[in-house]
Write a structure and sequence with these properties.
CATH topology of the largest domain: Tetracycline Repressor, domain 2
Radius of gyration: 21 Å
CATH architecture of the largest domain: Orthogonal Bundle
Helix content: 55-70%
Order of helices and strands: HHHHHHHEEHHH
Mean pLDDT: 85
Largest sheet: 2 strands, antiparallel
Distance between the termini: 67 Å
Strand content: under 5%
């Protein structure tokens, strides 16, 4: 019987002892795909059953459903193992174009996943916003609101990863690696927005061609 199975009397087996950070990662690893499949109405009982733990175990790691859903949104947009997974993917790509295609595929997949989870968590995101949890001080010293800090951090991390992609190929570029990273990110983010009616979408290969070769004919 697997760790996720129920015992014969229908009681969820006691979870093995884990450090809080490990337990948090284990819960989120189950929760993110569950949200994609079921949406934001998934209950903590269902989450516990899928994770093979008691429902109370969730609340020893997350104080309430809102913090649980916000953690899932953060994991979706910027997974804890994101840098290691990105490095592993890049290690299997040969040459600048191949790396751009692989990075684009990964970011597009992550965008689709993130959209699903963010939509499911939207009521909790709005509650956090209304409670002033996303408030910070603006340049003028006055209170300012913006995206949750984890969204800002995700963009910073993505920019750093894409800049790192271009850095070994600096001699092939007409711009700084950081500028190339912004250009690639802009193409990716604008490539597939069906919720805005922007179809057809650009493929990873088309994005790589546009980024590296532009839109003008070579004989122009």
């Amino acid at each position: 019987m697997s760790a996720h199975s129920l015992t014969l009397d229908g009681v969820t087996p006691r979870a093995a002892a884990m450090a809080p950070d490990d337990r948090r990662r284990a819960i989120l690893a189950v929760l993110v795909p569950l949200i994609v499949e079921r949406g934001g109405d998934v209950s903590t009982r269902e989450i516990a059953r899928a994770a093979g733990i008691a429902e109370g175990t969730i609340f020893r790691v997350f104080p309430d459903k809102k913090s649980l859903m916000l953690a899932a949104a953060e994991e979706a947009i910027n997974p804890a193992d994101g840098q290691a997974a990105f490095d592993e993917a890049m290690a299997g790509a040969e040459g600048l174009r191949a790396k751009v295609v692989v990075a684009t595929e990964r970011v597009l997949d992550r965008m689709r996943l993130t959209m699903s989870v963010m939509m499911a968590a939207r009521q909790h995101l709005m509650a956090a916003h209304e409670a002033g949890e996303h408030q910070r001080t603006g340049p003028d010293g006055k209170p300012a609101f913006g995206p949750p800090p984890f969204v800002m951090q995700a963009q910073e991390d993505l920019h750093r990863r894409l800049t790192g992609l271009f850095e070994p190929h600096r001699d092939e570029l007409a711009v700084e690696p950081s500028v190339a990273a912004v250009a690639l990110r802009s193409l990716i983010f604008g490539a597939s927005r069906p919720e805005l009616g922007m179809t057809p979408a650009l493929t990873p290969d088309q994005i790589a061609d546009l980024l590296l070769d532009g839109v003008r004919r070579r004989d122009s």
